[in-house]
Amino acid sequence: MEIAEITKQRIKAHLAKGMRFDGRTPMQYRPITIETGVSKKAEGSAKVRIGETEVWAGVKLGTSIPFGDSPKSGTLMVTAEFSPMASEKFERGPPSIESIELARIVDRGIRESDLIDLDKLCIKEGEKVWCVFVDIYPINDAGNLADAAALAAIVAIKTAVFPEYKNDKINFGVFTDKHLPLGEYVPFTMTFHKIGDQLIVDPTVQEGEASEAHLTISVSSSKKGEFVHAMQKAKDITMSVEEVNSIIDHAVKEFKVIQKAFEDATK
Fold it and tell me: How many domains does the chain have?
């Protein structure tokens, strides 16, 4: 349900003064909390809360035949399941456009940053490889599902371990201490919303409804510096080159708040 036009105008008026209804500054996140190991059956799992927004993510490992053009590489599949429990906007049934878009945003950040070294997931070249399934479950949508889902996914991946594999068979429920092979970069996802002439991060539901365009960007940091791995824009309103450059600058500066929450939860 869309918010009233008068509420949109109030949000814009507040932002023009550098203010938000909940007292935050435009580039300030709500408190971020992370819990790992929330599922006893998944190989890796995490619960992330950003303010009142809550998302769970689970990692399951299986095996399959590799793709013909990459006979030595494992595979990655990300899905998101929206339940009416999380928001009155969500309906039961086939995957919605919104859930597919969310899964793609998370998948793109993981894949483009080479978070998982898929080339190290080969069991037998051309015949069998490990498959990494990442399942995302929004529990409560209080705004900014994309950033919460992406963070939950990378925490679940970071903490995932292989199940026992013997005699060409997986013994599900029997966990080893071997973690997934990870690359050099960990992608931290931030979504910037344009409301009027202002840019904000971590919108509430009302701010998200008032948003005229948003750009999701995945950023990482290493000894070599900061890197932008992926970007995805949504909604019809255009963004200028100056606005996109400003978003990149803000992302490189501000993503460290998400990085710290991740590091505190996975150290």
Answer: 1
Query: What are the E-state strand segments in the chain?
Result: 32-36, 44-50, 53-64, 75-80, 122-124, 128-140, 161-166, 169-179, 188-195, 198-201, 213-222, 225-234
Give the Cα-Cα-Cα angle 95, 101, 103 (nearest 5 degrees): 80
The enclosing domain of 130 has a CATH number of 3.30.230.70
Measured CA to CA, the distance from residue 192 to residue 194 in angstroms comes to 7
SS3 state at 261: helix
Rounded CA separation 184/153 (Å): 17
pLDDT, one tens digit per residue, over 12-48 is: 999 999 899 999 999 999 999 999 999 999 999 999 9
| pLDDT, tens only, 167-206 | 999 999 999 999 999 999 999 999 999 999 999 999 999 9
